Amino acid sequence: MARVTEPSVVADPKVIAGLDAYQALPAAQQPTWYSQEALELSRKELSVLPPLVFAGEVDRLRDRLAQAASGNAFLLQGGDCAETFADATADRIRNRVKTLLQMSVVLMYGSSLPVIKMGRMAGQFAKPRSNNDETRNGVTLPAYRGDAVNGYDFTAESRLNDPKRLVQAYHTSASTLNLVRAFTTGGFADLRSVHDWNKGFTDNPANARYESLAKEIDRAISFMESAGVNFDGLSSTEFYVSHEGLLFDYDRPLTRIDSRTGTPYVTSGHFIWIGERTRQLDGAHVDFLSRVRNPIGVKLGPTTQPQDVRDLIEKLDPEREPGRLTFITRMGAGKIREEMPKLVEAVKGTGANPLWITDPMHGNGITTKNGYKSRRFDDVMDEVRGFFEVHKAAGTFPGGIHIELTGDD
Fold it and tell me: Cα dist. 234→94, 189, 213, 219 in Å?
């Protein structure tokens, strides 16, 4: 039975005061809402809605991440750069889940390790931005900050920072999670269906390689079935959801007190990460997430200093709890072999054992001639190789990969 995390649980006033201490600290990347009254109504509504995830699920994920940090599992985290309300359809959600299942089975078969599957899903509706505003042809409007804040279309109506979108983000996340749970526990994730996951990708050059691997898995399963092995464990899989903990007006109202332990959990997602632009040690994001029980990730870019890593450990993982803290490196292919070893070495001697995963997407961005942001596949792969090389040289574990992906062909 899932442990209940509800706003009705009587909480220690000191716990609540600690959770809200972030309000006195600098908070980067927060939108300016068009109406404070509308914001308070949305926050109040979110505060009484059911949790999207449960404390027991979060605790189980923390145990899984501890296994990965010790080299006994591997984390695959992937999904959209930012989800949109329009794309939260059954077909698109299924295709994203299917892509992650395909990737996980390749990783699992090649590494002989359990693969923890985690989507950038059911909550990734906000984006950090370099500027608050965007100007086109002499017209200045608020920058698009994700569907939880405003719309993508460059019109005054669309770009209004509307707090009612926070509630819409909750309901879209709830329907997404409902489908994800159905897909991953209702037979769709059955390892005996590896061929079905590849249907519709006939023109993809990776198709032949994947089909070859799927046939090998089929042969292995057929052999074990003939030997009388019980395959109940193959019919479903654990699947977790994550998002960047960017908007306090979304995550704070959805923070609940566990009915068993009296400790706070952010119930908008299992795993919450702090971005490169919001990881200031004296800032609101680090303070708030230091006080919740969820496993926490932190993005580390090429300017990160060894002392930054040590300070983040002290703030976010003072008890040195296995599975609590994940460092997500996003260095860029040209810098990872030079910058990352210093950070890995900085952890040694702290008593911490964070999970290290690589984000090879965000450090390798380019802008094409027609203005689209993209990455070169060779750069992405080179950063992944560099990540593994650094850990091999340091004697530490490369524990996972964090990527943006599409479920489309």
Answer: 18, 8, 17, 15
> In the chain, what's the furthest Cα-to-Cα distance?
72
Kindly give the pairing relationship between strand 373-375 and strand 365-367: antiparallel
Is residue 82 left, alpha or beta, with left meaning phi > 0 and alpha meaning psi from -120 to 50?
beta
From the list 357, 341, 342, 350, the residue with the least C-alpha distance to 296 is 357
- pLDDT score of 313: 98
Q: What pLDDT, on the 0 to 100 scale, is given for residue 366?
A: 84
pLDDT value of position 1: 43
What's residue 211's pLDDT? 78
Burial class of 174 by CB neighbour count within 10 A (0 to 12, 13 to 18, 19+): middle
Angle, helices 207-226 vs 90-111, to 10°: value is 70
The one-letter code for the residue type at 100 is L
Return the sign of the alpha-carbon dihedral for residues 18, 51, 258, 73: negative
Backbone angles phi, psi at 3, to 5 degrees: -70, 135
pLDDT of 407 = 81
pLDDT (tens digit per residue) in 304-318: 999 999 999 999 999
Q: CA 346, CA 338: separation in Å to the nearest integer?
A: 14
pLDDT at residue 284 in the model: 98
| Integer angstrom CA distances of residue 297 from 134, 294, 383, 395 | 29, 10, 19, 22
Residues of the chain with pLDDT under 50: 1
CA–CA separation, 69 and 352 (whole Å): 10
pLDDT attached to residue 361 = 93
Task: Write the pLDDT tens digit of every residue in 95-128.
Answer: 999 989 988 988 988 899 999 999 999 999 999 9
User: What's the pLDDT score for residue 9?
Assistant: 59
**CA-based Rg of the chain, rounded to a whole angstrom?**
21
